[in-house]
Amino acid sequence: MATIDIDAPGTSQLFIGNEAIARGALEAGVGFASAYPGTPSSEIIGSLAEIAKQKNIYVEWSVNEKVALEAATAASYAGIRALAAMKMNGLNVASDFLATVILSGIGKKGLVLMVGDDPAAHSSSNEEDSRAIAKWFDIPLLEPGDFQEAKDMMKWLYDLSEEIGSICILRSVTRVAHARGNVKLGEIPKVDHKARFENILDPKNTLPTSIMTIPSSLRHAFQHMKLDKAREKFESSSFNKYVGPERPDLLIVTCGSGWLYSQDAVNALKIENGVGILKLGTLWPLPEKLVKSCLSRTDKVLFIEETDPFLEGAIMEYSASMSPESRRNIYYGKHTRHLNAFGELTPDAVIKAITTILNIKYETREADYAKKLEAVPQGYTMERMLTFCAGCPHRASYWAIKNALRMDGRDGFVTGDIGCYSMALGPAGFFQNRTHQCMGAGTGLANGFGQLWRFGFDQPVIAVAGDSTFYHSIVPALINGVHNKANFVLVIFDNSATAMTGFQPHPGTELTAMGEPAAPISMENICKAIGARVEVCDPFDLKKTTDTLLDLLEQKSGTRVAIMRRPCELVRGKKEKHPYKMKILQDKCLGEDCGCNRLCTRIFRCPALVWDPGIGKTRIDEVICNECGVCADICPEEAIIKEAVLV
Amino acid sequence: MKQLSKDPINLIVSGVGGQGNVMVSLVVGNALVSEGYFITVGETYGASQRGGSVMSHVKISARKQYSPLIPEGQADIILGMEPVETLRMLKQFGNSRVITIVNPRPIHAIDITGGGGGYPDMEQLLSWIKDLSAKTYVVAATEEAQNMGNPILANMILIGALVQSALLPIEESSIEKVIKQMFPKDVVVNTKALKKGMELAGHQAG
User: Which residues 3-42 of chain B have a CB within 8 Å of chain A?
Assistant: First the structure.
């Protein structure tokens, strides 16, 4: 398995789309890359960080996406090719700056914003389609249809960005960014990066524009001229291609993941002679002449894209200005419900749309096999609820939160946030989270609930947030709470990593993205400086943590903070082993006869605790157990023990 | 590079988050790319990282890059790291030609650890798997891996079984090369696990 800087031009490597994108940036001679982690975009900066020192480039995990984009823009101003990467939700955070940097323009060197969209929200709280922002803010946007293109487009976008003087966007979706495929490598140039910000009043100034957004209308006009220039180039771009007969019975217009699905479907159905595919890579502005010439050679058009009907809407608009014959085209897609404008594309959905339009019979499997399948008892493939890992500190934290709120007795609740701990919406965290939106939302909501006492509201509120989230978006909400005396408790889960996206460092950890030592920024000092009461707990000490939470809840006024400090089990487990194994004393476990109602397997639900109906008792699955020891403290019969092992 | 009997060959690796699903597809994929094939791997991960059902779709072609997902009913090989997950894949992607390799070690789901529906009877489960497969290799990978000192080696044992089955145009030597690249500190133990898997599947040949 090669790192992305492998010096082997011409060879094929198996890269995920994100590694291909990072390789493309390297081949373009990028010198500066910044990002906030978010699935499906994290591996771009992750893989660049691994090789940053050898390649003399600067790579950082920024505190949030807006800072990441601003920092990358500065590098462009100073003459360094720069990349900012984020997931689609991060684009919302960065959008304020993005909306204005298109007016102010970029520096002498190219600036590319890479956005990873997550159709079906595999690891997201929504499934927004970032392509809309290209049209909304007037930004050129490309989207790769496979892994090779992911690399090649990224590289080419720097040339485009410099030629037209605009930030450009590379949009990719999960099934490209997180899928793996062959990538044929090019050369990585040796760049002697020299940074200098030239004074705009200096006559030698070589910046194409001064760096400001005013006069805005004039600069908005400039941006439209840049888009026109981009469109001209897109008309002949090799990222757009048509494959199929001269006059297809059905024209598929597609982009992104839809390109490979469409080809596979046409091959599988053996309809290559009747169906053509127009694959677009330059999605905004669209290559109007190319699109119109394809539209004029067919009668039926099907749009296949993730997630919104973006091409569908824009291209149907074109048809209004075309010849009367072309205007008679029949258009299929999301507006005709042949495909959904939600969820992700699948090969089956694409096959179904095509076979429905062309009235072709398609069987997924033999009839007798399908019959056999029907006989399989339903219960044999039970759903697997998502849960915290065995030994996860979040399970212990939520156990303490649940018990503290129960003991407090005023019907308190938790406003949730985004991270592994979002699973507390379900049984993993005992259904404690009652809200779930975006990063920082739980604390913002608690600010509101915390003011409602004047209208009779008397329930205690606990807002939760992860450590990385704290730096990213909690601090302003905490300031707001303390200043306005909002009544709530903020619980920060400090597990020393951005765990959900792959353990990236953040401002509270001791290393930077490039592995340089960093002074951790103390979250308790920040909270204290703001003026909040702060308590630090070890969630594995269930009793003390529960007592501390109860005490904080009883304070009943002002904004208070509890920090649950325990490293993520996946981080800790790599460094050390606990000096004991968990064991269940079978003579002490009373099983169904105990009054606990199977507390450990029915409520606590660590995946390593297994109810064995054969013996009517609980046992430990030693393959799963990470020896955190928390279950020993919940068993009323003390039947679960830590048994010392020699290490 | 050999011509394939069918192009693409569709392989599904299934299991439970945390078992090493991604690692298996990565080892197999890298070995095949080094032999000149086009490989596309589609994976489920992210929120399903731990405890959820996970699968990797691997398409192997001598001709072109395919899409990362396999349509319903179109799997050629299912490599099941967990029996319930194997049956789940057969229900969605199985057909009368499919060949299955299954590790018969259950991982209980949390609603089952809670005593909900109960984990299905293993003999019944395996008989359904065999009934829905043209050929089934039952490879006690986790058990063997525990004997070798680390349950995570089950992955390499299953890869060994896949190599031995000769369902893919994959040589033992190219897996060994990938082991050296990916696990430079654990070459000996992984190579031993690979050979163990080949031996276990060899006993079930024919």
Answer: 16, 18, 25-26, 29-30, 33, 36, 38-42
Is residue A408 in some structural domain? yes
CATH code of residue A181: 3.40.50.970
Give yes or no: residues A95 and A27 share one domain: yes
Q: Decide if A13 touches B, using CB distance below 8 A.
A: yes
**Interface mutation target, options B43, B50, B146, chain A, most CBs of A under 10 Å:** B50
Q: CATH for B9-202, among 3.30.420.40, 3.40.920.10, 3.40.50.150, 3.40.50.300?
A: 3.40.920.10
- Domains in chain A, number: 4
How far, in Å, CA of B197 to CA of B182, rounded?
A: 19
Residue A196 lies inside a defined structural domain of this protein: no
Q: Reduced to 3 states, what is the DSSP secondary structure of residue A528? A: helix
Query: pLDDT grade, residue B115 (50/70/90)?
Result: low
- Give the per-residue pLDDT at B191: 97
Nearest CA of chain B to the CA of A546: how many Å? Answer: 24
Token couple for A73:
């823009």
Selection from A180-189, A379-388, A502-511 with the highest mean pLDDT: A180-189
Same domain, A156 and A273: no
DSSP class of A4: T
Indicate the residue of B41, B94, B109 with minimum beta-carbon distance to A385. Answer: B109
pLDDT at A214 over 90: no
What local confidence, expressed as pLDDT, does residue B111 receive? 64
Look at the pTM and tell me if it is higher than 0.90. Answer: yes
Residue A548 is encoded by which pair of tokens? 């501390």
* Same domain, yes or no: A84 and A167: yes
**Domain presence at residue A203:** no
Read off the DSSP letter of residue B67.
P
Q: Which of B69, B88, B121 to mutate to test the interface with A (most CBs of A within 10 A)?
A: B69
* Residue A337 and residue A416 in one domain: no
Examine residue A257 and state whether it is found in any structural domain, yes or no. Answer: yes
> In the numeric block, which tokens belong to residue A546?
């529960």
Domain extent, residue A297, equals 241-358
Find the residue in B nearest to A598 (Cα): B114
* Rounded alpha-carbon distances, angstroms, from residue A537 to A19, A45, A54, A519: 39, 33, 40, 22
pLDDT > 80? residue A573: no
Residue A642 has pLDDT above 70, yes or no: yes
Asked if residue A133 and residue A69 are part of one domain, the reply reads yes
Same domain, A139 and A163: yes
Residues A268 and A173 occupy one common structural domain: no
How does residue A204 score in pLDDT terms, banded at 50, 70 and 90?
A: low
Query: What tokens were used for A591?
Result: 């099983």
Inter-chain contacts counted by CB atoms under 8 A, chains A and B: 194
CB–CB of B161/B168 below 8 Å? Answer: no
pLDDT per residue over B141-182, tens digit each?
999 999 999 999 999 999 999 999 989 999 999 999 999 999
Q: Does A385 touch chain B (CB under 8 A)?
A: yes
**A263 Cβ under 8 Å from any chain B Cβ:** yes
Q: Please choose, from the candidates A277, A276, A284, A293, the residue with its C-alpha nearest in 3D space to the C-alpha of residue A233.
A: A284
pLDDT tens digits, one per residue of A574-593: 777 777 899 999 999 999 88
Element (H, E) at A221: helix A216-235
